[in-house]
C-alpha cells in the first residue's frame, strides 16, 4: 500500500516534470532540477557579543557563515571564504540570476571547502544592533543598469561598449535583470562599525578553519584586506574580483565622472586602522595627491606623497585583483594596484582580457562566462598555495 502510494506520487512528479518550464524563476517548481553542485550545507554564527538593553540582553555583531562541503569530498589544502559586495548578500555566490550554476558551485567542483559570509548588518548577518548600523539603499534599478548590467547603453566610459556577457538585456522588464535586481538589499552607511565587527569575527573564523583563500567582490574587498592586516598568518591569499576600495575616494552617480568622486577610506583602502611603517597613530598623518591623467577610459588616482608609509602586515599576504574588460573598474582599478605597490604590497593585477576572457562588467562572476572566471581564481590559488 505504502509503496504503491509512493509510486503514484513519483509518477505524478515525473508527469509534472515533463510539462514544467524550468527556465529562470520557474525553476523554483518542485519538478525542476538544481543547477548547483551536490554538496552538504551547514551554518554557524561567529563572533559577536551580548549587549545589555532595556528589554534584556541582545546579540550584536555576529557574522553569519555558511559552510558548503562538496559531496565528493574536499581535496584542496585550503578553504575558500567568499565575501560579497555592497547592496547584496551571500546569495550572490549561489545559482545565478538566470539560474545557471553559481560561483560557489564552481569552487565546489574544484574540490574546495567553501564558506560564504553575510557581512554584519546585512542579510542573515543582521543582528539586534539597530543603533550602529545606519542603513541605506543598496542599488536602484537605474544604478544597476548603468553601472553593472547594461553600461553600454549609457556609454559613460568607452570600454562599456565591449560589454557582451550579461545574460539578457540587462534592463528592467527582462526576467533575468528583475531576478538580479531583487537580490539587492540595504547596506550600512557606517562602514566603520561594520569593518570593526567583520575584522574581529573574521580572524575568529580563520582561527577555527585555518589559513584560507579569501575571495571578495567589489566593496567586500575591505574585509580580506583588514584580515590580511590583523591575522596575516591565517590568510593564504587575497583574491579580489573588481575591488571597490579605491584609495581615498569613492565614485557615486556617474561612476566615471570626476565630479562623481567623494573622499572616502581615510586609511587609504579602509575606513579603520591598518598598520603602516613608519607607524602612524592617525590617518591624517598620511599625505597623498592625485596623479595621472584623467580620462573617461583611465582615471587619475590618489598616491602617497612625502614620506611613503608601507603596509607591512598587509604585504605579508599575496594579493590579486581581477578586472573585467568592460567594467567601470577597468578605468580605475590601476589605482588600487599602484597604491598597494607603492605601499610595499606585491599586488598583482589580472585583466581578464589578457587571459582571453572578454566582455565582462562589474558582476562578471554572474555573467555568461562565469565558469572561466572561476577557472582563473582556481589557477591563481593553485599557483599560490
Ligand atoms: C543582561 O545581562 C547582565 C549580565 O548577565 C545582567 O546583569 C542584566 O540584568 C541583563 N539585563 C537585563 C535587562 O536583563
Ligand atoms: C579534486 O577533485 C575535483 C573534483 O572531483 C577534481 O576535478 C580535481 O582534479 C581534484 N583536485 C585534486 C588536487 O586532487
Ligand atoms: C558610526 O558608528 C559609530 C558607533 O556608533 C559612531 O561613533 C560613528 O560616529 C558613526 N560614524 C558615522 C559616519 O556615522
Ligand atoms: C559620465 O561622465 C563622463 C565624463 O564627464 C561623460 O562623458 C558621460 O557622458 C557621463 N555619462 C553619464 C551616463 O552621465
Ligand atoms: C592609466 O593611468 C595610470 C596612471 O594613473 C598609468 O600608469 C597607466 O599607464 C594608464 N593606463 C592606460 C591604459 O593608459
Automatic annotation (TrEMBL):
The keyword Signal applies. It comes from Aureobasidium pullulans (Black yeast). One of its GO terms (molecular function) is hydrolase activity. This is Alpha/beta-hydrolase. It comes from the Eukaryota. InterPro entries: AB_hydrolase_fold (IPR029058), Carboxylesterase_BioH (IPR050228). Transmembrane segments: none annotated. Keywords: Hydrolase, Signal. Residues 1-18 form the signal peptide. The keyword Nucleotidyltransferase does not apply. Gene3D superfamilies: alpha/beta hydrolase.
